[in-house]
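Internal ticket - ligand job 344, NDP:
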Amino acid sequence: MKIAVVTGISGQDGAYLAELLLAKGYKVYGTYRRTSSVNFWRIEELGIQNHPNLHLVEYDLTDLSASIRLLQTTEATEVYNLAAQSFVGVSFEQPVTTAEITGIGPVNLLEAIRIVNPKIRFYQASTSEMFGKVQEIPQRESTPFYPRSPYGVAKLYAHWMTVNYRESYDIFGSSGILFNHESPLRGREFVTRKITDSLAKIKLGKLDVLELGNMDAKRDWGYAKDYVEGMWRILQAEKPDTYVLATNRTETVRDFVTMAGKAAGFELKWEGAAESEVAIDAATGKTLVRVNPKFYRPAEVELLIGNPEKAQRELGWKPTTTLEQLCQMMVEADIRRNEAGFSF
Ligand code: NDP
Ligand code: GDR
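stdout (C-alpha coordinates):
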Protein backbone atom coordinates (compact mmCIF):
# COMPACT_ATOMS: atom_id res chain seq x y z
CA MET A 1 0.00 0.00 0.00
CA LYS A 2 1.31 3.46 -0.91
CA ILE A 3 1.57 5.87 2.00
CA ALA A 4 1.14 9.62 1.56
CA VAL A 5 1.45 12.56 3.88
CA VAL A 6 -0.77 15.52 2.93
CA THR A 7 0.02 18.64 4.94
CA GLY A 8 -2.86 21.11 5.25
CA ILE A 9 -5.76 18.59 5.13
CA SER A 10 -8.09 21.21 6.59
CA GLY A 11 -7.60 23.38 3.49
CA GLN A 12 -9.32 23.23 0.09
CA ASP A 13 -6.65 21.28 -1.79
CA GLY A 14 -5.79 19.02 1.16
CA ALA A 15 -9.38 17.79 1.31
CA TYR A 16 -9.65 17.08 -2.43
CA LEU A 17 -6.20 15.49 -2.62
CA ALA A 18 -6.94 13.21 0.34
CA GLU A 19 -10.18 12.16 -1.37
CA LEU A 20 -8.29 11.37 -4.59
CA LEU A 21 -5.50 9.43 -2.87
CA LEU A 22 -7.96 7.40 -0.78
CA ALA A 23 -9.84 6.49 -3.96
CA LYS A 24 -6.52 5.32 -5.42
CA GLY A 25 -5.98 3.01 -2.45
CA TYR A 26 -3.40 5.05 -0.53
CA LYS A 27 -3.06 5.20 3.21
CA VAL A 28 -3.24 8.95 3.87
CA TYR A 29 -1.84 10.86 6.82
CA GLY A 30 -3.47 14.28 6.74
CA THR A 31 -1.96 16.94 8.95
CA TYR A 32 -3.79 19.68 10.78
CA ARG A 33 -2.68 22.38 13.23
CA ARG A 34 -3.67 22.52 16.84
CA THR A 35 -6.00 25.46 17.29
CA SER A 36 -8.62 26.21 19.94
CA SER A 37 -11.34 25.09 17.50
CA VAL A 38 -10.11 22.74 14.80
CA ASN A 39 -12.47 22.59 11.85
CA PHE A 40 -12.80 19.66 9.44
CA TRP A 41 -15.85 20.89 7.51
CA ARG A 42 -14.22 20.21 4.14
CA ILE A 43 -13.40 16.52 4.67
CA GLU A 44 -16.81 16.17 6.32
CA GLU A 45 -18.48 17.65 3.25
CA LEU A 46 -16.57 15.15 1.09
CA GLY A 47 -17.63 12.35 3.46
CA ILE A 48 -14.10 11.03 4.01
CA GLN A 49 -13.55 12.02 7.66
CA ASN A 50 -14.13 8.46 8.90
CA HIS A 51 -12.42 6.65 6.02
CA PRO A 52 -10.42 3.71 7.49
CA ASN A 53 -7.30 4.69 5.52
CA LEU A 54 -7.35 8.35 6.57
CA HIS A 55 -5.33 9.24 9.64
CA LEU A 56 -5.34 12.77 11.02
CA VAL A 57 -2.07 13.92 12.57
CA GLU A 58 -1.45 17.09 14.55
CA TYR A 59 1.53 18.86 13.01
CA ASP A 60 3.00 22.31 12.45
CA LEU A 61 5.10 22.96 9.37
CA THR A 62 7.34 25.40 11.22
CA ASP A 63 8.68 22.66 13.52
CA LEU A 64 11.69 20.69 12.25
CA SER A 65 11.55 18.01 14.96
CA ALA A 66 7.84 17.47 14.26
CA SER A 67 8.66 17.16 10.55
CA ILE A 68 11.25 14.48 11.25
CA ARG A 69 8.89 12.55 13.53
CA LEU A 70 6.08 12.85 10.99
CA LEU A 71 8.14 11.10 8.33
CA GLN A 72 9.56 8.53 10.77
CA THR A 73 6.23 7.47 12.23
CA THR A 74 4.18 7.45 9.03
CA GLU A 75 6.83 5.77 6.82
CA ALA A 76 5.45 7.88 3.98
CA THR A 77 6.65 7.36 0.42
CA GLU A 78 5.06 10.55 -0.93
CA VAL A 79 4.74 13.92 0.79
CA TYR A 80 2.42 16.60 -0.59
CA ASN A 81 3.21 19.90 1.08
CA LEU A 82 0.05 21.97 0.79
CA ALA A 83 0.31 23.73 4.15
CA ALA A 84 0.88 27.47 3.97
CA GLN A 85 -0.29 30.88 5.09
CA SER A 86 -1.93 31.06 1.69
CA PHE A 87 -3.82 34.37 1.69
CA VAL A 88 -1.99 37.06 -0.28
CA GLY A 89 -3.89 39.93 1.39
CA VAL A 90 -2.88 38.84 4.90
CA SER A 91 0.75 38.39 3.86
CA PHE A 92 1.10 42.19 3.62
CA GLU A 93 0.01 42.49 7.28
CA GLN A 94 1.91 39.41 8.51
CA PRO A 95 5.03 39.21 6.34
CA VAL A 96 7.20 37.52 8.96
CA THR A 97 4.69 34.80 9.84
CA THR A 98 4.15 34.25 6.13
CA ALA A 99 7.91 33.90 5.57
CA GLU A 100 8.22 31.45 8.47
CA ILE A 101 5.32 29.21 7.43
CA THR A 102 5.15 29.57 3.65
CA GLY A 103 8.86 30.17 2.97
CA ILE A 104 10.91 28.29 5.57
CA GLY A 105 8.26 25.70 6.51
CA PRO A 106 8.85 23.55 3.42
CA VAL A 107 12.58 23.46 4.19
CA ASN A 108 11.77 21.63 7.42
CA LEU A 109 10.15 18.90 5.34
CA LEU A 110 12.99 18.84 2.82
CA GLU A 111 15.50 18.51 5.67
CA ALA A 112 13.37 15.78 7.27
CA ILE A 113 13.38 13.89 3.97
CA ARG A 114 17.17 14.22 3.77
CA ILE A 115 17.50 12.89 7.33
CA VAL A 116 14.79 10.20 7.46
CA ASN A 117 14.52 8.80 3.93
CA PRO A 118 15.91 10.59 0.84
CA LYS A 119 13.78 8.32 -1.37
CA ILE A 120 10.55 10.03 -0.31
CA ARG A 121 8.91 11.92 -3.17
CA PHE A 122 8.12 15.55 -2.30
CA TYR A 123 5.53 17.85 -3.88
CA GLN A 124 5.78 21.59 -3.18
CA ALA A 125 2.68 23.73 -3.72
CA SER A 126 4.20 26.58 -5.72
CA THR A 127 2.09 29.32 -7.23
CA SER A 128 1.51 31.63 -10.16
CA GLU A 129 1.93 34.47 -7.61
CA MET A 130 5.68 33.91 -8.11
CA PHE A 131 5.29 35.36 -11.63
CA GLY A 132 3.76 38.53 -10.19
CA LYS A 133 4.43 41.53 -12.40
CA VAL A 134 3.99 40.54 -16.03
CA GLN A 135 7.25 39.57 -17.73
CA GLU A 136 5.81 37.31 -20.43
CA ILE A 137 2.35 35.90 -21.26
CA PRO A 138 1.15 33.27 -21.10
CA GLN A 139 3.37 32.43 -18.13
CA ARG A 140 5.19 29.09 -18.31
CA GLU A 141 7.97 27.23 -16.46
CA SER A 142 10.72 29.37 -18.01
CA THR A 143 9.05 32.76 -17.43
CA PRO A 144 11.13 35.00 -15.12
CA PHE A 145 9.72 35.45 -11.61
CA TYR A 146 8.78 38.87 -10.17
CA PRO A 147 6.66 38.31 -7.04
CA ARG A 148 4.52 41.22 -5.80
CA SER A 149 3.63 40.20 -2.24
CA PRO A 150 5.31 38.76 0.86
CA TYR A 151 3.38 35.57 0.06
CA GLY A 152 4.79 35.43 -3.48
CA VAL A 153 8.32 36.06 -2.23
CA ALA A 154 8.02 33.36 0.45
CA LYS A 155 6.69 30.84 -2.08
CA LEU A 156 9.52 31.67 -4.45
CA TYR A 157 12.08 30.88 -1.73
CA ALA A 158 10.40 27.52 -1.06
CA HIS A 159 10.25 26.82 -4.79
CA TRP A 160 13.96 27.40 -5.28
CA MET A 161 14.78 25.36 -2.17
CA THR A 162 12.83 22.46 -3.68
CA VAL A 163 14.80 22.80 -6.92
CA ASN A 164 18.01 23.14 -4.90
CA TYR A 165 17.39 19.94 -2.90
CA ARG A 166 16.60 18.15 -6.16
CA GLU A 167 19.88 19.21 -7.68
CA SER A 168 22.08 19.02 -4.55
CA TYR A 169 20.90 15.81 -2.88
CA ASP A 170 19.17 13.93 -5.66
CA ILE A 171 15.86 14.19 -3.77
CA PHE A 172 12.66 13.67 -5.79
CA GLY A 173 11.47 17.20 -5.12
CA SER A 174 8.89 18.49 -7.59
CA SER A 175 7.20 21.84 -7.77
CA GLY A 176 3.75 22.49 -9.23
CA ILE A 177 3.30 26.12 -10.23
CA LEU A 178 -0.45 26.18 -9.94
CA PHE A 179 -2.63 29.01 -11.13
CA ASN A 180 -5.73 29.94 -9.09
CA HIS A 181 -8.05 27.02 -8.53
CA GLU A 182 -11.40 27.29 -6.87
CA SER A 183 -14.31 25.13 -5.75
CA PRO A 184 -17.22 25.07 -3.32
CA LEU A 185 -14.56 24.21 -0.69
CA ARG A 186 -12.62 27.44 -1.27
CA GLY A 187 -12.10 29.65 1.80
CA ARG A 188 -14.47 32.64 1.96
CA GLU A 189 -11.58 35.13 2.14
CA PHE A 190 -10.67 34.40 -1.50
CA VAL A 191 -12.46 36.45 -4.11
CA THR A 192 -14.40 33.77 -6.01
CA ARG A 193 -16.00 32.20 -2.95
CA LYS A 194 -16.53 35.62 -1.37
CA ILE A 195 -18.51 36.50 -4.51
CA THR A 196 -20.54 33.28 -4.75
CA ASP A 197 -21.32 33.19 -1.02
CA SER A 198 -22.27 36.87 -0.92
CA LEU A 199 -24.48 36.67 -4.00
CA ALA A 200 -26.20 33.64 -2.49
CA LYS A 201 -26.81 35.66 0.69
CA ILE A 202 -28.13 38.63 -1.35
CA LYS A 203 -30.48 36.32 -3.22
CA LEU A 204 -31.82 34.96 0.07
CA GLY A 205 -32.18 38.45 1.59
CA LYS A 206 -29.36 37.89 4.12
CA LEU A 207 -27.03 40.60 2.74
CA ASP A 208 -27.58 43.93 0.96
CA VAL A 209 -24.35 44.66 -0.89
CA LEU A 210 -21.14 42.85 -1.80
CA GLU A 211 -17.98 44.98 -1.41
CA LEU A 212 -14.86 44.16 -3.39
CA GLY A 213 -11.43 45.64 -4.19
CA ASN A 214 -9.69 45.60 -7.56
CA MET A 215 -12.21 44.60 -10.23
CA ASP A 216 -9.67 44.73 -13.06
CA ALA A 217 -7.32 42.00 -11.81
CA LYS A 218 -7.28 39.11 -14.27
CA ARG A 219 -6.95 35.53 -13.13
CA ASP A 220 -6.63 32.12 -14.76
CA TRP A 221 -9.21 30.25 -12.64
CA GLY A 222 -9.57 26.46 -12.75
CA TYR A 223 -11.34 23.79 -10.69
CA ALA A 224 -9.42 22.52 -7.65
CA LYS A 225 -10.37 18.87 -8.27
CA ASP A 226 -8.64 18.97 -11.66
CA TYR A 227 -5.54 20.47 -10.04
CA VAL A 228 -5.09 17.86 -7.28
CA GLU A 229 -5.11 15.22 -10.03
CA GLY A 230 -2.22 17.19 -11.54
CA MET A 231 -0.33 17.17 -8.22
CA TRP A 232 -0.59 13.39 -8.07
CA ARG A 233 0.60 13.03 -11.66
CA ILE A 234 3.57 15.28 -10.93
CA LEU A 235 4.75 12.85 -8.24
CA GLN A 236 4.18 9.78 -10.47
CA ALA A 237 6.47 11.13 -13.22
CA GLU A 238 9.74 9.40 -13.95
CA LYS A 239 11.83 12.38 -12.86
CA PRO A 240 11.31 15.28 -10.46
CA ASP A 241 10.57 18.53 -12.25
CA THR A 242 8.63 21.80 -12.26
CA TYR A 243 5.22 22.04 -13.96
CA VAL A 244 2.71 24.81 -14.61
CA LEU A 245 -0.96 23.82 -14.15
CA ALA A 246 -3.40 26.35 -15.62
CA THR A 247 -6.40 26.63 -17.96
CA ASN A 248 -4.91 29.20 -20.36
CA ARG A 249 -8.01 31.40 -20.05
CA THR A 250 -8.08 34.64 -18.07
CA GLU A 251 -10.98 36.79 -16.88
CA THR A 252 -11.35 39.87 -14.67
CA VAL A 253 -12.84 39.82 -11.19
CA ARG A 254 -15.68 41.88 -12.70
CA ASP A 255 -16.35 39.12 -15.27
CA PHE A 256 -16.51 36.55 -12.50
CA VAL A 257 -19.05 38.68 -10.60
CA THR A 258 -21.21 39.01 -13.73
CA MET A 259 -21.01 35.26 -14.33
CA ALA A 260 -21.83 34.40 -10.71
CA GLY A 261 -24.65 36.95 -10.77
CA LYS A 262 -26.14 35.20 -13.79
CA ALA A 263 -25.88 31.83 -12.03
CA ALA A 264 -27.73 33.35 -9.06
CA GLY A 265 -30.44 34.82 -11.31
CA PHE A 266 -29.27 38.46 -11.46
CA GLU A 267 -28.54 40.48 -14.58
CA LEU A 268 -25.84 42.92 -13.43
CA LYS A 269 -25.20 46.26 -15.16
CA TRP A 270 -21.90 47.97 -14.41
CA GLU A 271 -21.71 51.74 -13.89
CA GLY A 272 -18.97 54.18 -12.84
CA ALA A 273 -15.28 53.51 -12.66
CA ALA A 274 -12.51 52.75 -10.16
CA GLU A 275 -13.63 53.51 -6.60
CA SER A 276 -17.13 54.53 -7.69
CA GLU A 277 -17.84 51.47 -9.77
CA VAL A 278 -21.05 49.62 -8.91
CA ALA A 279 -23.09 46.74 -10.30
CA ILE A 280 -26.85 47.25 -10.43
CA ASP A 281 -29.51 44.58 -10.65
CA ALA A 282 -31.31 45.25 -13.96
CA ALA A 283 -34.62 43.91 -12.61
CA THR A 284 -34.85 46.03 -9.43
CA GLY A 285 -32.36 48.88 -9.98
CA LYS A 286 -30.71 48.02 -6.64
CA THR A 287 -26.94 48.29 -6.18
CA LEU A 288 -25.71 44.80 -5.38
CA VAL A 289 -21.94 45.24 -5.72
CA ARG A 290 -19.66 48.19 -4.99
CA VAL A 291 -15.95 48.89 -4.65
CA ASN A 292 -14.41 49.42 -1.23
CA PRO A 293 -10.77 50.54 -1.45
CA LYS A 294 -10.03 48.80 1.85
CA PHE A 295 -9.77 45.60 -0.23
CA TYR A 296 -7.06 47.05 -2.49
CA ARG A 297 -3.58 45.58 -1.98
CA PRO A 298 -0.35 47.59 -1.64
CA ALA A 299 0.91 45.88 -4.80
CA GLU A 300 -1.24 43.93 -7.21
CA VAL A 301 -0.71 41.06 -9.64
CA GLU A 302 -2.66 42.43 -12.58
CA LEU A 303 -2.67 39.58 -15.08
CA LEU A 304 -2.20 35.84 -14.80
CA ILE A 305 -2.68 33.40 -17.66
CA GLY A 306 -0.77 30.15 -17.69
CA ASN A 307 0.56 27.87 -20.38
CA PRO A 308 0.05 24.26 -19.22
CA GLU A 309 1.55 22.63 -22.35
CA LYS A 310 4.41 20.90 -20.53
CA ALA A 311 2.02 19.20 -18.08
CA GLN A 312 -0.24 18.21 -20.97
CA ARG A 313 2.63 16.79 -22.99
CA GLU A 314 4.56 15.02 -20.23
CA LEU A 315 1.86 14.10 -17.72
CA GLY A 316 -1.24 13.89 -19.92
CA TRP A 317 -2.88 16.45 -17.60
CA LYS A 318 -5.54 18.86 -18.72
CA PRO A 319 -8.31 20.79 -17.01
CA THR A 320 -11.80 19.36 -17.59
CA THR A 321 -14.05 22.06 -16.11
CA THR A 322 -14.98 25.38 -17.69
CA LEU A 323 -15.13 28.58 -15.65
CA GLU A 324 -18.90 28.75 -16.30
CA GLN A 325 -19.36 25.23 -14.88
CA LEU A 326 -17.15 26.03 -11.88
CA CYS A 327 -18.98 29.27 -11.16
CA GLN A 328 -22.39 27.58 -11.44
CA MET A 329 -21.27 24.79 -9.09
CA MET A 330 -20.03 27.31 -6.49
CA VAL A 331 -23.14 29.49 -6.61
CA GLU A 332 -25.45 26.46 -6.31
CA ALA A 333 -23.47 25.11 -3.35
CA ASP A 334 -23.57 28.48 -1.58
CA ILE A 335 -27.31 28.95 -2.14
CA ARG A 336 -27.93 25.45 -0.77
CA ARG A 337 -25.67 26.07 2.23
CA ASN A 338 -27.09 29.49 3.05
CA GLU A 339 -30.60 28.08 2.92
CA ALA A 340 -29.47 25.48 5.46
CA GLY A 341 -27.73 28.05 7.71
CA PHE A 342 -24.22 26.71 6.98
CA SER A 343 -21.52 29.16 8.01
CA PHE A 344 -18.04 28.25 6.68
P1 NDP B 1 -5.83 26.79 2.19
O1 NDP B 1 -5.52 28.13 2.77
O2 NDP B 1 -7.25 26.39 2.00
O3 NDP B 1 -5.14 25.67 3.10
C1 NDP B 1 -3.89 25.86 3.69
C2 NDP B 1 -3.65 24.78 4.72
O4 NDP B 1 -2.39 25.01 5.36
C3 NDP B 1 -4.70 24.73 5.85
O5 NDP B 1 -5.01 23.39 6.12
C4 NDP B 1 -3.95 25.35 7.02
O6 NDP B 1 -4.39 24.92 8.28
C5 NDP B 1 -2.56 24.82 6.75
N1 NDP B 1 -1.52 25.53 7.52
C6 NDP B 1 -1.35 26.86 7.62
N2 NDP B 1 -0.28 27.12 8.40
C7 NDP B 1 0.22 25.94 8.81
C8 NDP B 1 1.30 25.54 9.64
N3 NDP B 1 2.08 26.44 10.22
N4 NDP B 1 1.52 24.22 9.83
C9 NDP B 1 0.71 23.30 9.26
N5 NDP B 1 -0.34 23.60 8.48
C10 NDP B 1 -0.58 24.91 8.26
O7 NDP B 1 -5.03 26.69 0.82
P2 NDP B 1 -5.37 25.86 -0.53
O8 NDP B 1 -5.87 24.53 -0.17
O9 NDP B 1 -6.13 26.73 -1.43
O10 NDP B 1 -3.90 25.76 -1.17
C11 NDP B 1 -3.04 24.67 -0.87
C12 NDP B 1 -1.62 25.08 -1.13
O11 NDP B 1 -1.45 25.44 -2.50
C13 NDP B 1 -1.14 26.30 -0.34
O12 NDP B 1 0.22 26.10 -0.05
C14 NDP B 1 -1.31 27.46 -1.31
O13 NDP B 1 -0.43 28.50 -0.99
C15 NDP B 1 -0.98 26.77 -2.61
N6 NDP B 1 -1.60 27.31 -3.80
C16 NDP B 1 -2.95 27.45 -3.86
C17 NDP B 1 -3.56 27.87 -5.02
C18 NDP B 1 -5.03 28.05 -5.12
O14 NDP B 1 -5.48 28.70 -6.07
N7 NDP B 1 -5.82 27.47 -4.22
C19 NDP B 1 -2.76 28.18 -6.22
C20 NDP B 1 -1.33 27.95 -6.06
C21 NDP B 1 -0.79 27.52 -4.89
P3 NDP B 1 -5.47 25.77 9.13
O15 NDP B 1 -6.80 25.29 8.64
O16 NDP B 1 -5.16 25.38 10.52
O17 NDP B 1 -5.22 27.22 8.85
P1 GDR C 1 -4.99 35.48 -5.15
O1 GDR C 1 -6.52 35.17 -4.79
O2 GDR C 1 -4.49 36.69 -4.47
O3 GDR C 1 -4.90 35.42 -6.64
O4 GDR C 1 -4.26 34.23 -4.49
P2 GDR C 1 -7.70 36.11 -4.26
O5 GDR C 1 -8.94 35.37 -4.59
O6 GDR C 1 -7.48 36.51 -2.85
O7 GDR C 1 -7.57 37.42 -5.17
C1 GDR C 1 -7.73 37.38 -6.58
C2 GDR C 1 -7.82 38.78 -7.12
O8 GDR C 1 -9.05 39.37 -6.72
C3 GDR C 1 -8.80 40.70 -6.29
N1 GDR C 1 -9.86 41.13 -5.38
C4 GDR C 1 -10.13 40.60 -4.17
N2 GDR C 1 -9.56 39.57 -3.52
C5 GDR C 1 -10.07 39.23 -2.30
N3 GDR C 1 -9.54 38.18 -1.65
N4 GDR C 1 -11.10 39.92 -1.74
C6 GDR C 1 -11.71 40.98 -2.37
O9 GDR C 1 -12.63 41.58 -1.86
C7 GDR C 1 -11.19 41.33 -3.65
N5 GDR C 1 -11.53 42.26 -4.56
C8 GDR C 1 -10.72 42.12 -5.60
C9 GDR C 1 -7.44 40.61 -5.61
O10 GDR C 1 -6.88 41.92 -5.47
C10 GDR C 1 -6.71 39.72 -6.60
O11 GDR C 1 -6.23 40.47 -7.66
C11 GDR C 1 -4.82 32.91 -4.59
C12 GDR C 1 -4.42 32.14 -3.31
O12 GDR C 1 -5.08 30.90 -3.32
C13 GDR C 1 -2.93 31.90 -3.28
O13 GDR C 1 -2.61 31.03 -2.19
C14 GDR C 1 -2.52 31.24 -4.60
O14 GDR C 1 -1.13 31.03 -4.59
C15 GDR C 1 -2.92 32.11 -5.77
O15 GDR C 1 -4.33 32.27 -5.74
C16 GDR C 1 -2.58 31.46 -7.11
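Auto-summary: The pocket of guanosine-5'-diphosphate-rhamnose (ligand 2) is lined by residues 86, 88-89, 127-129, 179-180, 189-191, 194, 212-214, 217, 219, 253, 295, 297, 300 (CB under 6 Å). Residues 18 and 28 are 7 Å apart (CA to CA).
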